[in-house]
Specification:
Blueprint (H helix, E strand, L loop, with lengths): L9 H6 L19 H30 L4
Amino acid sequence: QTFKARAFTVKDLEALGYNLDQCGYPSAEEEILSPEETIRQFHEKRDALNAKIDKQLAEIERLLGLKA
């Protein structure tokens, strides 16, 4: 659970060992990939995008009567 702000009683703070880091801000973790894995993922994403683009272009050409 995350909070923008939160109030604590003295008893709460004592129970938490006076740890004031209680807001639960999410921390982003970055995954470090090997060069091979990075290139493989790039190719997969590029191939998927190229397929989407090709599909859209084919539909546009069909609507314009450029291809049967």
